[in-house]
Amino acid sequence: MMEKLINIGNKVYRLSASCPFMRFEGNPVLSSSKVNEKWTEPHLKVVTVHNAGVAIHNEMTLMLFRSHLRNGISLIGKAISTNGLDDWHVDDRPAIRPCDESDIFDSNCDVDAQIELEAGGVEDPRISKIGDKYYITYSAYHGMIQDKVRVCLASTFDFLTYMRHGPVLDRDMRNVVIFPEKIGHYFYALMRPNDDPSSGGNGEMFREIRLARAESIEKNVWEIYDKPVMRQAGGPSPFQHKIGPGAPPIKTRHGWLSIFHGVRSTMDGNPYVLGVALHELDDPSKVKVSSIPIVFPAKDDCKTGTDEYVHVPQVVFTCGAVRSNDGVIRIYYGGNDTVMNIGFSHEDILAAMCKQYPQDPLTGKPLYKI
Questions:
Q1: Is residue 365 part of a domain?
Q2: Comparison of pLDDT for 307 and 21, the residue scoring more
């Protein structure tokens, strides 16, 4: 069985298919109490810090994290670290909050519609660097219409100013992650459709991940493939009830590694796990999916004080991961939608899981003998 020893700080972690993911001993790396030390005004006090997009910028690791204000509206903050592990410095003000007329908009963006669309909050940013520009997909929540969510696009060069480009699609398509380079003549993205509550959706769309392509990212004109690239048929699986893209795909010598989330409905809740898929470098529609998750939620994923709020139990969720030159993958993930954590894996281990313990990508049925 393949094993990898990785060195993180002063600690050695042993990884294998039996243990493909190790939690950072310094978790949580960011929590609401740390953010509230900087956001001191009463209306900016938050109760969560989670689901952060991650990028390397100016040789620093940068997180755009999601936080919930006490009134329920979500916004996005920024923190940076020299080593990507600890000593996170939080900006004095939120980075992206529900927009108004003072923000920067693409000439094709309907400003009034965007303001209305974001009034309920902005959250779950994913960051893809293409050239010298960073593209951020994020969920925008309508201020008055329940369950109306649109994934929108923003861009930045410096993480100081952000240009809004409007909704990626004119429909509820969640968890949009963009591949960080062109493949052939197109840009590609992974998207998870949502059922339309008004049409009596039965949850089937929650079990699918679709591939989409576009000639330009900023025009928000995506051609979505008719058939899913990944799907769960509903059989016994940690991903049985819901799947969706997590971090933007990571390029490796094995292929594009995609860390996704999956949910299984139980009698005592809906635990979220993280899984991994491997897309071919030249054709991301061809994919191998590990039938075995890389991490299940645990008590160590949400360490809080006895008087601190916990948002959603039994959840691990990622919007960002970073590859080092030695193949180590740092996965930044939210615990219980409450705090930010880091876990470690290695590209060789994750690729091996997809190849040695695969499932049928369109049914979820294991393709190996138990």
A1: no
A2: 21
Domain assignment of residue 2, yes or no: no
Residues 104-123: tens digit of each pLDDT: 999 999 999 999 999 999 99
In the predicted model, what is the mean pLDDT of residues 185-211?
Answer: 79
Distance of CA 312 to the CA centre of its chain: 16
Determine what percent of the chain falls in helix, strand and coil, rounding each to the nearest 5: 10, 45, 45
Question: Beta partners for 188?
Answer: 213
Residue 10 belongs to some domain of the structure: no
Cβ atoms < 10 Å from Cβ of 33? 14
If we measure between CA atoms, which residue out of 246, 296, 248 comes closest to residue 272?
296
Assign residue 282 the CATH number of its domain: 2.115.10.20
In this structure, what are the phi and psi dihedrals at residue 156, rounded to the nearest 5 degrees? -155, 155
* pLDDT exceeds cutoff 90 at 173: no
Q: In terms of residue numbers, what domain contains 199? A: 28-359
Cα–Cα–Cα angle for 273, 278, 281, nearest 5°? 150
Tell me the backbone φ, ψ of residue 309, rounded to 5 degrees. -75, 140
Contact 175, 246 (CB under 8 A): yes
Chain centroid offset of residue 365 CA: 25
The tokens describing 77, both together, are 């903050």
Confidence category of residue 348, pLDDT binned at 50, 70, 90: very high
Alpha carbons 197 and 216: distance in angstroms, whole number: 31
Residue 298 bridge partners (DSSP): none
Residue 210 lies in a domain: yes
Beta-bridge mates of residue 137: 126, 153
Q: Are 27 and 342 in contact (CB under 8 A)?
A: yes
Residue 35: phi, psi to the nearest 5?
A: -65, -40
- Tens of pLDDT, residues 26-70: 999 999 999 999 999 999 999 999 999 999 999 999 999 999 999
Of 154, 153, 160, 144, residue with least CA distance to 73: 144
This prediction's pTM: 0.97
331 within 8 A of 286, measured Cβ to Cβ: no
Structure tokens at 138: 């994020």
User: What total number of domains does the chain contain?
Assistant: 1
